[in-house]
């Protein structure tokens, strides 16, 4: 049997999620929207600095400041909504996986239990399903955010001075690299 890729894992997750798979997709979309909204306050901050430096009408500063605060809080609340969606689906997947695995374990010959013991088998089932729950509930929305943030940053580069934009892109690339290292082969091994 060949090596499974991410697409195969998502097909398997979709089977266990059933109708709740829509919540996984919705959670990822909402997380991406949150990632876009959280970038807008950087533009607001740039506008405030531009107003002060260029000695323009300072009456707009409070508008940009409040907009930045409201968008930051809104982004947080939207991300929490995304996590609600993915958590509901993740708990359904976890429950369905445990139920399916236990039905399969019941059909195994008794010699398997002499060899490994019921506690070890139960621990394997619990650890595996918990790793899947963590992947769906947390890492899938984080992957959506990690995918959309660089695109948003590139748009910001064109919204203000491209030199400053490139300087802002450097920490984002470092963060993206860290995020990808956390979701690499190690998580795939845990899910197996």
Characterization of the model:
The protein is built from 7 helices and no strands. The protein is mostly helical and 192 residues long. Helix 5 packs antiparallel against helix 6. It is elongated, with a radius of gyration of 23 Å. It starts with 5 loop residues before the first helix and ends with a helix. The relative contact order is 0.12. The model has no long low-confidence stretch (mean pLDDT 85).
List keywords for this structure.
0% strand; 192 residues; mainly alpha; single chain; 7 helices; elongated
Helix and strand arrangement:
Layout: H1 6-17, H2 21-53, H3 61-106, H4 110-116, H5 118-159, H6 162-182, H7 185-191
Helix pairs in contact: 1-3, 2-3, 2-5, 3-5, 5-6
Summarize the structure.
The chain is an all-alpha fold and 192 residues long. 88% of the residues lie in helices and 0% in strands.
N-to-C span = 14 Å
Biggest sheet layout = none
- Please count the helical segments: 7
The radius of gyration is 23 Å
Percentage beta strand: under 5%
Low-confidence stretches: none
The H-and-E topology, N to C, reads as: HHHHHHH
- Give the overall average pLDDT: 85
How many individual β-strands? 0
Helix content: over 70%
Structural class: mainly alpha
**Principal-axes shape call:** elongated
């Amino acid at each position: 049997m060949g090596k499974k890729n991410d697409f195969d894992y998502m097909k398997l997750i979709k089977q266990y999620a059933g109708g709740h798979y829509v919540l996984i997709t919705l959670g990822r979309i909402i997380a991406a929207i949150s990632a876009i909204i959280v970038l807008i306050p950087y533009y607001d901050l740039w506008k405030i600095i531009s107003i002060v430096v260029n000695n323009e009408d300072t009456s707009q500063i409070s508008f940009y400041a409040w907009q930045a605060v409201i968008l930051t809080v809104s982004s947080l609340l939207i991300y929490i909504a995304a996590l609600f969606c993915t958590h509901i689906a993740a708990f359904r997947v976890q429950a369905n996986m445990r139920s399916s695995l236990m039905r399969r374990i019941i059909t195994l010959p008794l010699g398997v239990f002499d060899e490994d013991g019921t506690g070890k088998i139960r621990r394997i089932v619990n650890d595996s399903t918990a790793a899947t729950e963590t992947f769906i509930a947390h890492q899938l929305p984080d992957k959506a955010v990690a995918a959309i943030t660089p695109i948003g940053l590139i748009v910001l580069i064109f919204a203000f001075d491209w030199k400053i934009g490139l300087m802002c892109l450097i920490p984002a690339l470092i963060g993206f690299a860290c995020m990808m290292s956390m979701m690499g082969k190690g998580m795939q091994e845990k899910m197996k």
